[in-house]
Specification:
Elements: E1 14-19, H1 23-33, E2 37-43, H2 46-57, E3 84-87, H3 93-104, E4 116-117, E5 124-127, H4 141-165, E6 168-169, E7 173-175
Parallel strand pairs: 1-2, 1-3, 3-5, 5-7
Antiparallel strand pairs: 4-6
Helix pairs in contact: 1-4, 2-3
Length: 176
């Protein structure tokens, strides 16, 4: 009797939300961060982000109106809770504040804490570093993908290090 080799275990993809306005850029970025990251939804305007993101975070997700992300496939049930929200450079500081305020109003109080133990639950917010927003030429989609991959890798490494030390992880907002 022969036995087949055990199935290779892959870590669960990191569930995230992307708020971005340029489909050429965000579709490329999504392709580059798979399979280690699962993009649940893409919100392409402040109005959709402030309407649909709170529903998702409160456990009542709707199909994203953008049509992008795993939630646009009706077979995803139940969806993962996002661990990070990425707000791209097409959104102003005021837009970012509006999106974050709407989202945080729907989060359970525990997710609003500034401390996350190790890899614990909570939503971390990523946005472009303001010092890089003054460039004359916007970054290419390749640069955006590389910056997001690096930022997510650093974030997960920081969480793992905190968890290994039994320390609280305090990074609720990070730069891309």
């Amino acid at each position: 009797m022969s036995s087949s080799p055990p199935a290779e275990q892959h870590p669960q993809p990191l569930p995230i939300i992307i708020c971005a306005t340029n489909p050429e850029h965000f579709t490329y970025v999504i392709d580059q961060i798979k399979p280690s990251v699962e993009v649940l939804a893409v919100f392409t305007s402040v109005s959709t982000a402030t309407t649909e993101l709170p529903l998702l975070l409160s456990g009542y997700p709707t199909m994203p109106s953008s049509g992008y992300g795993s939630l646009s496939q009706q077979s995803i049930d139940p969806p993962s809770m996002p661990r990070a929200v990425i707000v791209a450079g097409g959104f102003s500081d005021d837009d970012y504040a509006s999106i974050k305020q709407a989202a945080e109003s729907s989060l359970p109080q525990a997710s609003l804490s500034d401390e996350v133990i190790g890899g614990g639950e909570g939503v971390t917010w990523f946005r472009p570093d303001p010092s890089t927003r003054v460039r004359a030429v916007p970054p290419t989609r390749e640069e955006l993908a590389a910056r997001l991959k690096a930022a997510l890798a650093k974030w997960t490494d920081d969480q793992a290090e905190a968890e290994a030390k039994g320390e609280a992880y305090q990074a609720r907002e990070r730069w891309l």
